[in-house]
Amino acid sequence: MKKLFLSLVAAGMLFSACNSSTVGNSSTTTADSAASAANAPVAKFEKESHDFGKIKEGDKVSYDFKFTNTGKSPLIITSARATCGCTTPTWPKAPVKPGESGVISVTFNSAGKSGLQDKQITVTANTQPAETMVHLIGEVLKK
Fold first, then answer.
1. Are 119 and 86 in contact (CB under 8 A)?
2. Higher pLDDT pick, 3 / 90
């Protein structure tokens, strides 16, 4: 009976010691995350969507989504992906310093498309949150 009681006491102490260090680590991680978010870069777009209006099937339209880094550290864009292969984005490969501006150029090829179009471009960068979306919208008329 004594051995059982001592085993339970030892297990309880071990359990409480493990919980104490876990709580300390998570609060440290939360504080570090808050500090990182405060210094993170921010991509502020002039316009988050552009309506190219009505175009004929087969036409190509391009638009430059202009943005400014309003954060406190350099903005690094790792990718810009469109919802389909008909839309091609290009983005700056070099870091955009705080206060500086950049452009994400998007070209939409309407070949084989008709009707209302909403092409979403997902921009992934070292921002909080990591993904930002811009839209290229309009209508493609049949020939």
1. yes
2. 90
In this predicted structure, the answer to whether residue 92 has a pLDDT above a threshold of 80 is: yes
Phi-psi region of 42 (alpha: psi -120 to 50; beta: other; left: phi over 0): beta
Secondary structure of residue 47 in the 3-state scheme: coil
3-state secondary structure of 34: helix
Q: Scan for tokens 């102490």, then name that residue.
A: 13
Q: Which residue has the tokens 């939409």?
A: 108
Phi and psi based region of residue 130 (left: phi greater than 0; alpha: psi -120 to 50; beta: remaining): alpha
Looking only at Cα atoms, what is the longest distance across the chain?
91
Phi then psi for 139, rounded to 5 degrees? -130, 135
Q: Report the alpha-carbon distance of residue 19 to residue 45 in Å, rounded.
A: 44
